[in-house]
Every structure is written in structure tokens, then in C-alpha cells.
Write a structure and sequence with these properties.
646 residues; alpha/beta; ABC transporter involved in vitamin B12 uptake, BtuC; Rossmann fold; 6-stranded mixed sheet; 26 helices; 54% helix; elongated; binds adenosine-5'-diphosphate; binds magnesium ion
Amino acid sequence: MKKWPVLVFILLLALLPIVPGVPEFWINQLNAIGIASLVVIGLVVLTGVGGLTSFGQATFVGIGAYATAWLTATMGGSPWLGLVLGIVLTLLLAFVLAQVTLRLSGHYLSLATIAVCLIFYYLYGNMPFLGRHDGIPGIPPISLFGYRLLQAQSIYYLIWLMVLLAAWTAINLLDSRSGRAIRAIKNGEKMAASFGIYTFHYKVIAFVYAAVLAGLAGWLYAHEQRAVSPSTFGINYGIEYLFMMVVGSVSSVWGGIFGAAVILTLKDQIQDIAPRLFDTSTNFELIVFGVLVVLVLHHAREGLWPIVTRFFSGAADKRKATAAPAAQWWSHADLLEKNGKPGHGGASNGGPGHASPGHDGAHKDPKSNGAADNSAPLLKVEAARKEFGGLVAVNDISFCVDAGQIVGLIGPNGAGKSTTFNLITGVMPLTNGSIAFRGKPLKSASAQQIARLGIARTFQHTQLLPQMSVLENVALGAHLRCSAGAIRSILRLDRHDEAALLREAATQLERVGLGDCLFELAGNLSLGKQRIVEVARALALDPTLLLLDEPAAGLRYMEKRELAAVLSALRDEGMSILLVEHDMDFVMKLTNHLVVMDFGTKIAEGTPSQIQQNDKVLQAYLGGIDDAAIADEINDDTADNIGVRA
Ligand code: ADP
Ligand code: MG
């Protein structure tokens, strides 16, 4: 988002109440929109970006409102103390709820938030000290520097100041290391885990953040309305907040504010018009909202905001990384300047702690030092077994990868190669057997712990976040290289670390020859290039062992040659690589050692030239195909590829 629309927006907001003749009704309406916007900004982060659907935000609004209502109207405390109490209670409740509900997946989480909302609605309505169904009246106004914010015009400024501050924090949060992790929650939890990211931690952060904004909204609401009652914190309001986000935007903070404005304006208009048309005062707006949400979900999955921005910015270039705020503060030219000359693809300009000859990866896990056995092979897989029900996908496989080697793991489709990768990287547990890294058994280590030891991987089915820029996708791989937390990000105190992290990501992208598409949306790249982005992302972890699952699939001849050059340069620097690849020419030229699998079993092992002459291997590749036509075709290709004349 450009700066000037925001400045115009702020200017309009500031001037509106002092323009003569603006009806008070408008100001009240804008106050309601501002308060709802706070809740929706939280929902954009939690639900829109993080994919965790909460119907229960009205609960937290209620906590913030009732806390200050009770403290000020009943106990005679200051509204500012009420704010502190409200935020503390919201934090506590959100944290406890997060521990319980965020472990649930899919619709169970949504159901849990509905249940919580219902519980609190009945609590508010039945607690004597909260005034039961009548609520708490007589809430005093907020005083600021001795000035009482009694009028709609005066609290208006406080409300919108809070909204702008909240928008700023949300944009900061999303444009950071934590923000990238939150974005990975929706569609990339397994991927994130293999880069050492504990997504649960970021779920809690998003949940608590959204709850605190809702609590703040509740505080403002209580002092604006000067009374609270249970009805405004029920499940229908929880749903309405969610509607605001869906209609506004699932990814833009400004879009969230827009959604709040659309829904509340519509609601008001409908409540005005419906009784005149239909001679009834039933909640007609709910029907309209329902239809609107269905239409938006069908025709504008991202909400109405992208349509608005496109309208105002003319023919906005859709290919630009709109979801990549990083690109704004750090221009491409700037970046190349910091990184050295454009087009410098050499492996020597690595960032801090870069893979280098003799690189031992010891800095990655301070807790695991000492015990590493340097005489042991880097990776030792011993009788590894994986069963899926009755299917033995990996059947007691054993092999080693030594330091500075490229080992190829080959075999027909379904041989169990990807499953072997999943076992090594802790994506799934072994049924039997053992895997040791640098002499230490991985046993039941989690994917995150294994990543921290210095094992990075790519995926056969690429797992990039398509709405994020290429640079940010690769920065996910460098997550462990810095430690800036969410609070520092929210306050934008993380810029130094963030710049270093993005620079590292850019370095890795240049290294694999993608230095010219840093700010492209990852989803806009060809599948072949996406695989190379995955290689860069894996390198960004600064691994000792790199697992590549079919990295050359979908690449053109020249691109394959470039990839081969990058991989052999990495080997020269001391990195070890385990490579799954079907292009036999690629494999035979690059690898030091080959392991051949078929139907889960290791059928051969040796140097490329030994494998090319192995009868069992030829049989596995050439035999056992029923359809004669397909068999002929594959036989020709494969025979050529593995260098035999069939
Ligand atoms: P490759 O990568 O060598 O083509 P895979 O490791 O993907 O083979 O698959 C090996 C076998 O295990 C296949 O028969 C596949 O269908 C099966 N398989 C893989 N993952 C799972 C899973 N999560 N559940 C059940 N079966 C699986
Ligand atoms: Mg596979």
C-alpha cells in the first residue's frame, strides 16, 4: 500500500468532526465502525491470514467492556485502570483458551469458539455483580489530560487513534518473521515444521493478539455507550465480526476496516428501510448479510477490498507482490547494492554462518554440542522401516551419507523415496529401525528439532506460499537464523534483524540463479522455478545435509545444467546432499554414490557406474510393466537415461 492514500484517509478522519453541518449521527456511526474495526483487524491476522476461524471474538469484546464497566461504574475506579484490568483478563483468558482450543484442528476450533461465546453470554446474563440481563449502566466517560471524552466527537478521536495504531501493529506483525510463520499456519504447517518453526507458538500469538484488540474494542465500547448489557456480546455479534472480515478482506488490514464500514452501514440502512417496506422489525439485515457473504465467497474470495484498490489504482499490476510488504521498505536496487553486484551468483558471498568447507553446523543447536561423533557418517539410516497399514512403504532400508557427498536415492514411482525423506526429517515416525545424524540417533526427534540440527529439505510437491513473494518464502527457511519475537515486530523494533534475514534469503536466491524474481509472487513462477525456490529456501536454513526431492523435475535442459552446477559447488563447500531424481543423466553425472529402491526395498547400492551395470536395477526399471505401449516408451527413455542400450 502506498503512503499517500493512508495520509488522505487520516486527514479525512481528522477533519470530519470539525466540518460544520456533519450530522452527529455520522460521528456515532463512525465510532461504531472504528470499534468494530479493532476486532476485525485482529480477525484479519487470526482468521484471514492465519486460517484459524473464530466465531468468538465478541467474548473478548465483552471481557474488555465488562471489566471496565464493573471497575468504573461499580467500584469507582479510573477508566484507565479499567483498560488495564480488561487487557489483563483478556490476555489470561485468551492464553488459556489458546492452549485448549488451538490444539484442535479444522472445524473443531470454530466449534470451540462458538461454545466459549455462548458460555460467556450466559455468564454475563446471570452474574449478579455484572447486573444480569440488565447489564451495568452509568459508566463514566474516559478522561484524557483532565478532558472528559463525553461527546461522540471527542471519543471519536481516541477510537480512531486506536484503530490506526492497531492497523500499524498488525501491518508490522504481518511484515515480519512472526508474520511469515503466521501465514504458514493456513497451508504450510508441515513445511514450516521442517524449517524449525513451531506453528503452535504462532497460533497462540495470533489468537492472543486478536483477543487483545477485541478487549480494547470492548473498553472503548463501554465508555462510548456508557452502559453494557450481554446482548451485544452474543454469538450473532461474533458472526457479524467474521462477516466484516470476509466481506472486507482476508489479508489486508485496511480491507478489514472497509469491511466493518460496509457491514455496519448496510445494517443501519436495512434497519431503516426494512420496516417501511415489510411492516416488520425482524432482523432483516441477517438475511441480507447471509446473501452478501455467499456472493462474496463465490465471486470475491479475497473480499471486496482488492476490487476497491484495483478501482482506485487503475489497472494495478496483479503480478506484483501485493502481499509482500517487505518490498516496500527495501527496494530491489537497494538490495542488490547491499548484496554486492547484480547477477553475482557465486556461492562465496554467503551470509553470516554460511556453509563453508568443514562447516560443522554446530552453531545450530547449542544444546546438542559435544556429543557429535565426527568419525561417524553424517547420516546413517539403519534398517529403517515404515508401514502404512498393510503396505510396507520402506522395508528395512540401510545406507549412509558421508560429509561432502552427493548420494542419489533412485527408484521407480512408489518405491518409497519420499517416505524415506519423511522419516529422516521427522515428518512421520519410523515403524522400526533407526536414523542417526552426526553419530546421534534422531529417535523421536520432531521435525523442528531435526531442522535445528541442520537438515533441510525440499518437497516433491512444492510447498510454497503462493500469495507471498519469492523472497519471503525463502526467508521462512532462514527463520532460525534470527530470534526477533512478535512483540518486537509489532513495535517495528525488528528492522535490523529483518533486513539481515531478507538479505540472507536474497543471497540464497541469487546463488540458485533466481536473483531477478525476488519480489514476484511465488505462485506466479513456473513449477520448475518453484522447485528451485525450494532449494534456495532449504539453503537459507544453512544446512549441513540437504535433502532434495526431484529438484530437476519440470526444468529445461539449461536450467538443469545450472542446478547441477549449483549442487556440485555446494558439495565442494562441504555440504552433503541426498538427492531423489528421475533424470538419470542428471543423477549419474552428479552423484558420488547411489542407493536404488524398488517397492520399499533397497535393491542395489554403489557408484553410478556400478549401478548402470546392475541387473537388478535394470530389471526394476525395465520389467514389471503390463501395458506394452507404455512399457516400450518408458523403456526407451529410461534405458537412454541410465546409459544402457536396451
Ligand atoms: P516415491 O517417492 O518413491 O515415489 P513414496 O514414498 O511417495 O514413493 O510412496 C511409497 C509408497 O507408500 C506408495 O505406495 C505410496 O502410495 C505409499 N504412501 C506414501 N505416503 C503414504 C501415506 N501417508 N499413507 C499411506 N500410504 C502412503
Ligand atoms: Mg516421491
